[in-house]
């Protein structure tokens, strides 16, 4: 789950009407669906609250998702955002996808070329260095390891060297959570790349470190196995010399990292009553480290210096656990084990006297089974006479939405069965039309085919825009400068 902070230009709302409602901040997360992976973008209001689930936008990654066996979560950083770029992994198709985020339409990331091979099996975590223009991905299946890519501002990802192996003996999909790759991240100065690997349940975990010099990754890792690391998970840096590593076996550890990149545990932190502490996020503004448990909705807050527990923030009781988080401004956003996002207000907690509180719980369980307000209004407009003076009651709208959802569920279930019988991994348009025919809705088929054709044309337009950007030969900074110049010219024409 990652944020993109869109650049704000004063002229946008005045001169670019289609973008005047574009959100300034967007929250992204990955839906690793075996039927087709997607990036889900959730707009953020100015006060930090999230808009309703019907405002979320789903963008296909171009790859296939997959979930590891016997695990609620195995990894962090499956999707990252740096500047105007978004990177994510497709575990089911062994590939990496890259997107460009438009400053005027951040809800619709545009693919930069087709997904590229991850170099191994079951990619699960990705890191990007803006300093070196390098993206690196971990694989944790039958063929495990780290594959890095050159990430030029214009053009597709280009593999750098061979797959760098990791000590993981797994299947595809992997069975965990032990004996899997957990996280990959560059240190703050981007002079080294770190990879955490969980122990196998009997032995210790690993921390691999690769030096980065002049845009080149040294394939010979520095390997650390502190005796405190058992089921090491996410790695969050305070500085090049210190970091926090969560551990599902007991809580977390503070690490000291030497100049030769070896790591030792400076403080082991046992969290009372923890189930499986797997994720962490550091907020310098609130002077706190927030650690998350996949088996608990509560958030444990640590002092970044002493490691002492400052608070245990109660989460929403509807949630069974937490699977990722980030901090932006005065809000902590936590992706839940159930389809939801919890928002905590952490603005007044720095001095330690005020405990952060849960301010919003956005249920996403029905985000695929609802209708956008504009769609509902269109249906209502087609039902009511144009000048009849008749209003549509809220109860009638709710009933209309419920009926539409039931119908969509019925068709989707039938289409899914058809695709499975044909041994297809993705539901195609012909599966939908076959489902309609088999369920007695043949009259709907022409309209569905027409809508599918229109959708293809829209996708072609988006892909054309993405290809145009990728082949333009211009850097993102040059494009941003050109955009500012055009805004300035537009202001002059209208003043």
Automatic annotation (TrEMBL):
Keyword Nucleus applies: yes
Protein name per Swiss-Prot or TrEMBL: NCT transcriptional regulatory complex subunit B
Oligomer status and interactors: Forms the NCT transcriptional regulatory complex with nctA and mot1.
UniProt keyword annotation of Disulfide bond present: no
Function recorded in the entry: Part of the NCT transcriptional regulatory complex that acts as a key regulator of ergosterol biosynthesis and the azole exporter cdr1B. The NCT complex binds the promoters of genes linked to azole susceptibility, and especially represses the expression of cdr1B transporter.
PANTHER family: PROTEIN DR1
Residue ranges that the Swiss-Prot or TrEMBL entry lists as coiled coil: none
Compartment annotation: Nucleus
Gene Ontology biological process: negative regulation of transcription by RNA polymerase II; RNA polymerase II preinitiation complex assembly
Swiss-Prot/TrEMBL keywords: Nucleus
GO-annotated molecular function: protein heterodimerization activity; RNA polymerase II general transcription initiation factor activity; TBP-class protein binding
Domain of life: Eukaryota
CC terms in the record's Gene Ontology section: negative cofactor 2 complex
